[in-house]
Design goal:
alpha/beta; two-stranded antiparallel ribbon; 18% strand; globular
């Protein structure tokens, strides 16, 4: 706005979610791209202070031009507005912050801390596809749903008993995905 404050309009997001719901896709909302992008270094990072290559495109209504957020305070404001909106719509319990093969644990933890602080006491649920055993071990408490990539399963097949146990331990946190993830691992083990 004219005071430099970020105001988010979630109309397009709402239409997208409502279209999915009308089509029978009602179990969850995956918030992809907020943390843990596997392609993190190839496209640059408009917000280096954040650590992850978050690309939030905004319209400056005064100049009618688009830009990417580059300030951490704007990122924080976006998260707070997004999370408040999800709660207002009654969608918070269905929402997961999704990471796709995060490769930098320190950055992932720092981003999770920021995301958690923006939820103002509400529990943020995380979902991750992983390709490294260190991530499985260090993030199992935060990963409500953990999906190992096939390359991960093949590369670390000697460690699969421990990995399956970590996923099994998280079934109460990710009851929709973790049982299916175990079935996928076990199917790959048979090949």
């Amino acid at each position: 706005d004219s005071n430099g404050q970020l105001h988010c309009d979630f109309t397009a997001f709402d239409r997208y979610v409502e279209t999915a719901f009308a089509s029978g896709i009602t179990q969850e909302i995956d918030l992809f791209g907020l943390v843990g992008n596997w392609d993190r270094n190839k496209m640059g990072n408009p917000m280096p202070e954040y650590g992850e290559p978050l690309r939030l495109r905004c319209l400056d209504e005064a100049t009618n031009t688009y830009f990417f957020l580059s300030q951490l305070d704007d990122c924080r404001s976006y998260y707070e507005q997004l999370f408040a909106h999800l709660q207002e719509k009654g969608w918070w319990e269905k929402s997961y912050v999704m990471a796709d093969e995060p490769t930098n644990l320190e950055s992932y933890h720092n981003c999770m801390a920021l995301i958690d602080s923006c939820a103002h006491g509400q529990k943020v649920k995380y979902k991750s596809a992983v390709n490294m055993p260190e991530f499985m071990e260090e993030c199992k408490e935060a990963g409500h749903s953990i999906s190992p990539a096939l390359s991960f399963i093949m590369r670390y097949r000697d460690q699969m008993p421990q990995i399956k146990e970590a996923i099994r331990a998280n079934i109460p946190l990710g009851p929709l995905h973790n049982p299916a993830n175990l079935m996928g691992i076990e199917a790959c083990e048979k090949v």
